[in-house]
Amino acid sequence: MAVLDSASPLLPSILAPLHLLAYSTLLGAELYQSFVMTKVAHQSLPRSAFTSLQKRLFLIYFQGQSVLLVVVAASVPPYGPASFVQDKSIWTPFAVAGICAGLNLISYGPKTRRLMIERIHQETHDRRNGVSADAVSDGMSSLNRAFSRAHAMSIHLNLITIGATLFYGWKLAAMLKIDSVVFD
């Protein structure tokens, strides 16, 4: 790493603040969206409004989560991605979070969204065909099962991503060297 030290002595002083800001934004967004926003919206909005909101928000959330994971990985102090060579143990939480976030972005998020929309269309179709609001048609039952599986997988992948983010945060906090600082 001596080559990196001499190549850009400013690199660590630029990467460290960027890394902390990106990491804190990632963790804050994950926790807020997963545990505050979703719960408040579910309790406060009618089902159709909640569904409409969720189908728009989660695509943005999964995109933002993935971009922030890349920024956090690219800004690992002191040398960015080259720091992974120095400490291979930090690869694990990034690999776990990246794989899970990627699966939600590419597969389970879109699948859950598609099934959510199909359930709305099926509900409209059932009402037009005289199926009472209390009854569940075979089509709706099938869509409910598929949605439950995809949604559960998406939730679990998101929780694993949050866990990996918290694990990395613990490692990051252990690496910090805090000196006595006096602010004037």
UniProtKB/TrEMBL annotation:
Keyword NAD carried by entry: no
InterPro entries: TMEM205-like (IPR025423), Xanthocillin_Biosynth-Assoc (IPR053009)
Entry's transmembrane regions: 20-37, 58-78, 90-109, 150-170
GO cellular component assignments: membrane
Membrane as UniProt keyword: yes
Keyword annotations from UniProtKB, A to Z: Membrane, Transmembrane, Transmembrane helix
Compartments where found: Membrane
Record protein name field: TMEM205-like domain-containing protein
Organism of this sequence: Amniculicola lignicola CBS 123094
Highest taxon of the lineage: Eukaryota
Residue stretches making up the TMEM205-like domain: 21-120
